[in-house]
Design brief:
The structure is a homodimer of 301-residue chains. Chain A has 301 residues and is α/β, with parallel strands linked by helices. The first copy, chain A, folds into two domains: 168 residues, Rossmann fold (3-Layer(aba) Sandwich), CATH 3.40.50.720; 117 residues, 6-phosphogluconate dehydrogenase C-terminal like domain (6-phosphogluconate dehydrogenase C-terminal fold), CATH 1.10.3660.10. Helix content of chain A is 50%, strand content 11%. Chain A has a seven-stranded mixed β-sheet, sandwiched between helices. In chain A, helix 5 links the parallel strand 4 and strand 5. In chain A, helix 7 crosses helix 9. Chain A starts with 5 loop residues before the first strand and ends in a 15-residue tail after the last helix. At the A-B interface, helix 7, helix 8, helix 9, helix 10 and helix 11 of A face helix 7, helix 8, helix 9, helix 10 and helix 11 of B.
């Protein structure tokens, strides 16, 4: 038994197009409808042949769906939902993949006051964007967080079963806790990566050419996540302000302590931290959340 | 013509053992001598068979060398050099791979006042440590920075030819400039990575289990370089204090500006930065300094 028979994906970037491919691969009998507000993206998805139908309006796309999965930037969720509100079947479940959950829940509830809403967030991705960047195995072994708040349990179970079919593990928590946890494991790391790449490219006494040449010293690692979709990430920060600022404040305090340790030559503080952080890496690899090969498996000729 | 015929490597971790393997592969006729202050490491190198000779003292290791390559943590360079100072042939060239160059130059000059010293730094590595972690291709396509200051040109040319044989590109600059450039491209990124991993594991309202589970949101990228050798990195920060603190100060200012943009909902500032940083990633890939495959080439089943 499949949890859904007619799935509509709205927003056809990396995540949306990966869901299309994942459903096609893992649930081949499901009827897949796809919509994107950008006609060029719709056309590309038709060319890629990863959906059964790609109508020209959001309303037409949801008309007989039993699951509508919103995969647009978090700041666009409300408008994307409004665009199909009038055509949404009463028993359809609406879910999403947004990286900030409190604000999305609010936007979806306002746009679809009577809908069955089960917000979600697959913690997966790459630095590439657009319908060509997606792939069916993106969610394999990754965690999907559902923040159903007061959604009916049967609806939550179906969304859970959907993600399990795509190869994911599921966790349920409140939207507020999600936003704090993701501020730590995703949002602040992205902000710092963007910031460090910006700082490095703005220096007067080190050229951009030098930064690029010697990036293998560690800097290049930060450039990967700093190459992620700008619209998506702008929206995440604007929609998870409180938690991001809270964690950023904590990080700033900890960086200040390290700064002080360096200034005063306190090697023990540095050494103790650097030893502790190794253990976290080991746990991440043991739990299958990163590649165990050195250097992420980068090629060395 | 090979630049050196009898090479001694002192310090047999990731870099030292990669040099042994690289020389064996690219210059198979060179006689390779290896030494490490730790008897267990020497024993392991004997087992690995990656050197012709592994004597029990630093003095015995350099006695007929024409190149002595120091691959110990930067804080141990002075003591490592003193240990063989009395046995160093007058015409041998001493070089090193330390990540901070002003302090190493000073330490080597003090320990070996009459030696031909050509300091260097291969900008290459992985998060793994020890003699088993090394591999012959580690330096392929990477940049090696030489900071010869007033070393004779003939000596510099030979060290340059040595690294070219190992597959590297060479740049020459002052030790001071090196230390600033590497603070940007390596030292501060490592410090921030260590710091963010430390912060994430110390929160009261987010568990370490959660941090690990949802690390694929970006956090896990930071854990790789935060798994690097603690001794090596403690020494780098203690020996490149001035430049690290200068760049850290700049980064702090830039993070503060982003923090302000988030607080006041200034999406344009965020979007503009996030667009700029994408271009740097593209240049790094175009110049062969990172893997062009998405997600660094990580496996997705």
């Amino acid at each position: 038994m499949l949890p859904f028979a007619r799935i509509t994906v709205i927003g056809l970037g990396l995540i949306g197009s990966s869901i299309l491919r994942g459903v096609r691969h893992h649930m081949p009998t499901v009827r897949l409808t796809a919509f994107d507000a950008d006609p060029a993206v719709r056309e590309r998805v038709v060319e890629l042949g990863i959906a059964d139908d790609v109508p020209d309006t959001a309303g037409a796309a949801v008309i007989d769906a039993d699951l509508v999965m919103l995969c647009v930037p978090v700041g666009a969720m409300g408008a994307a939902a409004e665009a199909f509100a009038a055509d949404l079947p009463a028993d359809a479940i609406v879910s999403d993949v947004g990286g900030a959950k409190l604000s999305v829940l609010e936007a979806l509830r306002a746009a679809l006051p009577n809908a069955l809403i089960v917000p979600g967030h697959p913690v997966a991705g790459t630095e590439h964007s657009g319908p060509d960047a997606g792939f069916a195995t993106l969610f394999h072994g990754r965690w999907v967080i559902l923040t159903p708040e007061d959604a009916p349990e049967a609806a939550v179970e179906r969304v859970k079963a959907f993600w399990e079919k795509l190869g994911s593990n599921i966790e349920i928590m409140t939207a507020r806790h999600h936003d704090l946890v993701l501020a730590v494991t995703s949002h602040v790391p992205h902000l710092i990566a963007y910031s460090i790449v910006g700082t490095a490219s703005d220096l007067e006494n080190v050229t951009q050419g030098e930064v690029i040449k010697y990036s293998a010293g560690g800097f290049r690692d930060f450039t990967r996540i700093a190459a992620s979709d700008p619209t998506m990430w702008r929206d995440v920060f604007l929609n998870n302000k409180e938690a991001v600022l809270e964690i950023l404040q904590r990080l700033t305090e900890d960086v200040t302590a390290l700064q002080r340790a360096i200034r005063w030559g306190d090697g023990d503080t540095l050494f103790n931290l650097f030893t502790r952080t190794r253990a976290i890496r080991r746990s991440i690899i043991e739990q299958g959340q990163d590649d165990e090969r050195p250097d992420f498996g980068r090629t060395h000729e």
